[in-house]
Amino acid sequence: MKAFQPLPPTRLFVQRFVSGLFLTLLAALPAMAETNSGGASPSLVRVAIYDHSGGSAAGPKNLQTFLVPKNGFESKVVTPQQIRDGVLDEFDVLIMPGGSGSAQAKNLEDEGREIIRKYVDNGGGYVGICAGSYLASSHYSWSLGLINAKVWDRSHWARGTGTVSLELSSTGSDLLKSDKDSVPCYYGQGPLLVPNNDPSLPGYEVLATYGTEIAEKGAPEGAMTGTHAIVRSMFGAGRVICYSPHPEKTGGPNSIMAEGVRWAGTGKAK
Predict the structure, then answer these.
(1) For the chain, is the Cβ count within 10 Å smaller at the N or the C terminus?
(2) How far apart are the C-alpha atoms of 140 and 47, rounded to whole Å?
C-alpha cells in the first residue's frame, strides 16, 4: 500500500476554499459593521453574586463596585433560596465569595449545591473566592467537586491574614491582563490549593502561586509558598476559576478579579 500523499490543489479545491472564506467573511460583516460604525457594544456578562448574610457581608458589596456596565458586567446579589428557585438560569456566571465554605454549603442545602453543579455542567461559569474556593474543591464532604483540588496543610487553615505576593504564570498574566508578573493581594485564610486525584475530574491550570506567606497561629513556615493561589479548569461545559486570596477587596488588584469573572462568564451560550 502506498503512503498517503496530499492531493495537489485543484480548481474544485480552490473554489471550495474561496467559497468558504467568503461565507466566513459574510457571517462576520454584521459584527464588523457594528464595530466600525460605533454601534451596539457586546452584551454584558450577567453575574450572580451569592450572599446568605442578609446584606451584611462585605464581599458582595466590594464586587458590585467594579462589576458594573461600564466594565462589561451587570451584577445582582442572589440568596440560597433564589438559587434553589432557579434564578441561575438568568445569569452567565455565579460568584461564591468569601466567608465560610461550610456555611455556604449548609445554607445552599443539598438541593442548592446540586443545582450549582448542574448549572456549571451545562455551561454556566463559577468563580470561587476564598470560601468559594474551599466550596469548589473536591476535598470536603460538603464540597461541590467542581475542581480537582485539595487543601494543603488543612490543619492550619486559620493561618492568619495579611498582604502576600502573587506570582502569575505567563498564562495568568495574559488571561487576567496583568502587566506585572508579581502583584500584592490581601490574603484572608483562603485554601492553599494543590492537585487532588479525583479520576472523574480533569486537572487544573495554575494561573498564580503564592510568592510569600502568612505563617501565624502555629502554621509552619514554608508550607504556603509555592502553593496555588489562582487556578482554572472546566467542569462539563462550564468554566471554573478559583481565587484563594481576595483581589475583590478595596486596593485589589480588582482588575485580575474582573478578568477572571469575564473569562468564566463568557463560556455560556446565550
Answers:
(1) N
(2) 26
